[in-house]
Design a protein that fits this description.
three-stranded mixed beta sheet, 2 helices, 224 residues, single chain, mainly beta, 8% helix
Length: 224
């Protein structure tokens, strides 16, 4: 994958390049053991517009929206604070080093995705084995780390926001090959799946899929 870096940097939205890379990424073995980066219940949003599938850096990304009693917000949901995910802590999915921080961009009003994709607040962590995790659309002013910091799995590194290309508060999360910024398949450990009837199934290690309701027990936050 590393040899594709110049092409990825120049043509990140090229569909022919995406199709060329897809079988290579599918065969790739994940090097980093990941924990789920959120606590509580979160819906893995269905990408109905297939916008992730049109970007080399986001093919395997998932957007996570917090749910409480089957809803993602209270009242009419017109305020950011109405949304249960807004301001919730984002945890480092694995030990790593902070290699990029984007901060200072405003949170969009609900259903007003006015920010461009590169105008989000977020954190990138580099992990042993040459992989990186990306945590995107963070709340303005919430990032607790700076470039060069070493973090431990579970550390709070930011809070869920609505910055950049985001219409409603959520976390955009993915694993990438750090050498070439290509989104790669990923699995995480120690979470549960919640069925529509409320039945909970523990998952030792698995790949969260769009549409699933993911649950991780809420414990004391560990701020960095």
């Amino acid at each position: 994958l590393a040899i594709a870096r110049p092409l990825v940097q120049k043509y990140p939205l090229d569909m022919a390049l995406l199709e060329f890379l897809r079988p290579l990424t599918r065969r790739r073995t994940q090097a980093t053991a990941l924990a789920f980066p959120l606590r509580g219940r979160w819906r893995a949003s269905v990408d109905r517009t297939h916008h992730h599938q049109r970007k080399v850096f986001a093919v395997y990304a998932i957007d996570f929206v917090r749910e409480v009693d089957g809803k993602s917000f209270k009242g009419d949901g017109k305020a950011l604070e109405d949304h249960f995910g807004y301001g919730q802590p984002i945890h480092a999915a694995a030990d790593g080093e902070v290699v990029e921080v984007r901060e200072g961009f405003p949170d969009n009003a609900i259903d007003r995705s006015e920010g461009k994709e590169d105008k989000h607040n977020g954190v990138s962590l580099l992990h042993a084995g040459g992989e990186a995790t990306w945590y995107i659309h963070a709340q303005k002013g919430s990032i607790t780390v700076k470039k060069g910091d070493k973090v431990k799995k579970g550390d709070v590194i930011a809070r869920v926001g609505n910055s950049g290309g985001s219409a409603r508060p959520h976390l955009h999360f993915t694993l990438a090959d750090a050498r070439c910024a290509i989104s790669v398949p990923w699995r995480c450990e120690g979470y549960s799946l919640v069925a529509d009837d409320g039945f909970v199934v523990s998952v030792k290690r698995g790949r969260p899929m769009e549409g699933q309701l993911i649950e991780v027990a809420e414990g004391p936050a560990k701020p960095k």
